[in-house]
Write a structure and sequence with these properties.
Elements lengths: L15 E2 L1 H10 L4 E5 L3 H6 L1 E2 L3 E2 L5 H8 L5 E5 L3 H13 L4 E5 L2 H7 L4 E2 L1 H5 L1
Parallel strand pairs: 1-6, 2-4, 2-5, 5-6
Antiparallel strand pairs: 3-7
Length: about 120
């Protein structure tokens, strides 16, 4: 009996994802992905997706090239879909192969009640 056909797999990375796609991937456990928040640092500190890293658009590509592998699965979000699309395009142009735009960004994540972190919660 083949067990490999029965083993569930996490949802695949798509060029555009909704918040449920990312949450399912996080719930999978050890998801081997990075969540990038491209909003400015005060917005990030006010609230961000749990586990996200801050890489404001102005420093995004330089920072990502230093710290992330080009093959890493990246979920990128900003405050608007336009901000997110611009950031994702910059990452793809820089050579990142697996970039997904989180549609709806932070507002969509908060609207469905998924976990967020704040600078205060991290410092505590």
């Amino acid at each position: 009996m083949r067990l490999f056909g029965l083993i569930p797999t996490p949802p695949p990375l798509r060029p555009k994802s909704n918040v449920y796609d990312l949450k399912a991937r996080l719930d999978w456990g050890e998801p081997a992905l990075t969540i990038i928040d491209v909003r400015d640092r005060p917005e990030f500190n006010a609230a961000h997706i749990e586990g996200a890293v801050s890489m404001p658009t102005a420093e995004l590509v330089d920072t990502a090239l230093i710290y992330l592998e080009l093959e890493r699965d990246l979920y990128v979000y900003g405050y608007t879909d336009e901000e997110t699309a611009i950031a994702a395009a910059q990452l793809r142009t820089a050579g990142f192969l697996n970039v997904s735009e989180l549609r709806g960004g932070m507002p969509a994540w908060k609207a469905v009640g998924f976990p967020v972190e704040t600078a205060r919660a991290i410092a505590a």
